């Protein structure tokens, strides 16, 4: 453990919203040499381990005087040379990584929208303040113990989800039969979670505040190597087809295929999230 003073230098800023409240959020990507550089053993940057320090949220106002939240995500300046243009894949990757770390730090109470990300003509929202932080030494991650494919957590009296069946490698139609009849495409995020050595699992977290025990019987979850469909008739429909050429999947599609045979999922009643590990 070491205590250092960070003097972050502004890089760029993006604007989005909180998925369930539509509150405005500004994310400042900044740099400081005290943040450890990425481990770059692979030429594929999606395989890198990229340290980032995420600030606590602070309140501010936008140009119209409306309230907003601001987060600073501070990286080692060595990544700047990879961010060459506004729409570069690496820049999008860093934005997605920043969003994931903000969501993880909030315990998934703040889930950010990916569909309408804007780049205001500012390097940072507000002044980047000096801060003294303690940087921990890296700790090895242990392989998680085997669990059922899908389990309910956060409610000891809850029944196990009726989604608790082994994911299929052949995609089938969602239970609703008509995606146009559903009313909401739930917000989602993903993270690459190390296990042991070079092994990792892909964790996709879906925000499901309207999911209840009584709706379990009508829900469906289908997993293919490059596609996931989650459906609750008249409530949710989410089709993640990462084989498509879509900016939403630019970082995710660079990873390996989903591990269909070992996939599992957890529904957190308290956090209102369904997390799929594949």
Automatic annotation (TrEMBL):
Region (Disordered): 156-179
Start and end residues of each PIH1 N-terminal domain: 5-139
Entries under InterPro entries matching the protein: PIH1/Kintoun_subfamily, PIH1_N
CC terms in the record's Gene Ontology section: cytoplasm; R2TP complex; ribonucleoprotein complex
A biological-process GO annotation: box C/D snoRNP assembly
Pfam family, one: PIH1
Family listed: Belongs to the PIH1 family.
PANTHER family, per database record: PIH1 DOMAIN-CONTAINING PROTEIN 1
Designated name of the protein: PIH1 N-terminal domain-containing protein
Organism: Pleurotus ostreatus (Oyster mushroom)
High-level lineage: Eukaryota, Fungi, Dikarya, Basidiomycota, Agaricomycotina
């Amino acid at each position: 453990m070491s205590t250092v003073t960070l003097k972050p230098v502004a890089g760029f800023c993006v604007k989005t919203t909180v998925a369930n409240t539509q509150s405005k959020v500004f994310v400042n990507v900044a740099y400081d040499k005290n943040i450890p550089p990425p481990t770059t053993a692979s030429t594929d940057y999606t395989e890198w381990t990229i340290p980032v320090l995420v600030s606590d949220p602070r309140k501010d106002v936008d140009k119209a005087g409306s309230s907003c939240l601001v987060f600073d995500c501070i990286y080692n300046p060595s990544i700047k040379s990879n961010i060459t243009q506004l729409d570069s894949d690496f820049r999008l990757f860093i934005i997605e990584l920043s969003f994931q770390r903000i969501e993880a730090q909030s315990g998934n109470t703040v889930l950010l929208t990916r569909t309408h990300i804007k780049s205001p003509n500012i390097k940072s929202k507000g002044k980047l303040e000096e801060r003294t932080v303690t940087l921990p030494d890296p700790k090895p991650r242990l392989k998680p113990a085997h669990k059922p494919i899908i389990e309910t957590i956060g409610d000891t009296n809850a029944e196990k989800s009726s989604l608790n069946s082994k994911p299929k490698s052949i995609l089938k139609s969602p239970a609703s039969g008509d995606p146009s009849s559903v009313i909401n495409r739930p917000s989602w995020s993903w993270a690459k979670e190390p296990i042991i050595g070079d092994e990792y699992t892909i964790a996709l977290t879906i925000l499901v505040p309207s999911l209840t025990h009584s709706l379990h019987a009508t829900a469906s979850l289908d997993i293919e190597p490059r596609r996931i469909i989650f459906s609750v008739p008249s409530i949710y429909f989410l089709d993640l087809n990462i084989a498509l050429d879509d900016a939403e999947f630019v970082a995710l599609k660079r990873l390996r295929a989903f591990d269909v045979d070992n996939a599992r999922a957890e529904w957190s009643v308290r956090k209102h999230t369904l997390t799929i590990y594949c």
